[in-house]
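Throughout this review, each integer encodes one residue's backbone shape. One record appears below.

===
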Amino acid sequence: MDVAGKVAIVTGAARGIGRATAVALARAGARAVVLADVRAEAAAETAALVGQHGADAWLRATDVGSAPALHRMIDETVQRYGALHILHNNAGIGEGADDWPKVSAERSAAIVDVNLRAVILGTRLALEPISRAGGGAIVHTASGAAFTPLPPQAVYAATKAGVVHFTRSCAPLADTHGVRVSCVCPGLVSTDMVQESGPGGPAPWLQAIIDAVEMLTPEEIAGRVLDLVRDPDSAGAVVSVENRPRSA
């Protein structure tokens, strides 16, 4: 699918992969990019970058973990622009500085709500508008953690595994609705989430991995997201982007 002239929503657009994808969509010619995030000030910085590439950037302060807020954001996008073609379900959170099982029950529930429930509900809510617009693409941000045990971030890993299997189960939507659902599974990416994984910086267990590999950039992952949006054969695709070992 050609991105030029299309309307896109990016969740978790204030920073990291979300910001990079929003800018990449604008650079590729998107007519409008809706920036959904709870961090209004940081998302405003993304909006400025998107606007530099000629796309209309619409900032929506949205907690995707809230079903009514997610519903309202998608409905208002369609009302404002008359169509929706692309959704990047990117918003995500982890255990943070409190590893599993020390992480609170409330935080654990929030991880499930943001990382998995919002992906499922966002896909369901965007499906009909994208289909009415002639079809399009929904891309989720999963994680390499979906494929391997990650004891310190057990809830995070479980939600990302759920996203992978949800993606594969949505492959038939390309035939029934004209909507290709896929996901990208990054390794370790240089983002704020990594820096917030421990008190005052990366968690010790994560620092050991950082020392052993070359970090991916948000822009690299955004490029893979655009590849999936454009690829007519991406229905049900699960694309891993792995870290390279750090040179000695």
Remarks:
- The first strand starts at residue 7 and ends at 11.
- The chain is about 45% helix and 15% strand.
- The mean pLDDT is 94.
